[in-house]
Design goal:
mainly alpha
Length: about 100
């Protein structure tokens, strides 16, 4: 009777252990799925942040290029004006010098 009772208790213990193992596997698979989903969400957010950063950098670069073009053309126009003024002075130099004497 004692051996039968021990065998029965052992079988119950094995059953409980198998149930526990099944629950543990289910828990860890759900945790793994949640971690995978969390990682995917984090990757999506990071890619969106990177895209936004790249967009902002491209916009800053375009603004800087436009500013540099404006400054370059402004310098060209100033040099052109000075060149025209010097040419006028060179052409009318004799008239200016003879008028002053």
């Amino acid at each position: 009777i004692k051996i039968d009772k021990t065998a029965k208790n052992f079988e119950i213990a094995v059953q409980k252990m198998e149930e526990y193992n099944a629950l543990q596997k289910k828990y860890y698979s759900e945790v793994s799925n949640l971690k995978t989903r969390d990682r995917e969400i984090i990757e999506i957010v990071e890619s969106l942040d990177k895209a936004e950063y790249d967009k902002n950098e491209a916009q800053k670069r375009a603004e800087r290029i436009a500013s540099e073009k404006f400054q370059k053309y402004l310098l060209y126009s100033i040099f052109t004006f000075c060149l025209i003024a010097l040419m006028i002075l060179a052409i009318y130099r004799k008239k200016i010098i003879s008028a002053s004497t």
